[in-house]
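User: Can you recover a sequence for this backbone? Please restate the input before giving your answer.

Assistant: Of course. Working from this structure:
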């Protein structure tokens, strides 16, 4: 278990609530200390091929979530922004509420 790999615990906001975090891209590059690489919470399901990437300076691409407001002892919510085809019953488009 990796304590940094917790994004799967961020839910879509319930009706009447708003998202309180946003995603940002994180590129783990070759300058990262080798001792820290084991903490990168990503693994390739299938290793990239030689043709799989143009920029070889990154050894892994990632995604992080940043709070958009001060949070303390509260759940993080992220607007999933699902496409409007075959939506699950629990889903609602909260970004239209802004």
């Amino acid at each position: 278990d990796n304590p940094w790999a917790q994004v799967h615990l961020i839910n879509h906001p319930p009706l009447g609530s708003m998202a309180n975090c946003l995603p940002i891209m994180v590129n783990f590059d070759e300058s990262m200390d080798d001792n820290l690489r084991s903490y990168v919470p990503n693994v390739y399901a299938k290793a990239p091929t030689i043709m799989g990437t143009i920029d070889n300076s990154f050894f892994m691409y990632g995604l992080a979530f940043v709070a958009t407001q001060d949070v303390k002892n509260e759940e993080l919510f992220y607007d999933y922004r699902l496409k409007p085809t075959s939506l699950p019953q629990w889903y609602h488009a909260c970004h239209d509420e802004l």
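That completes the design. Residues 71 and 89 are 28 Å apart (CA to CA).
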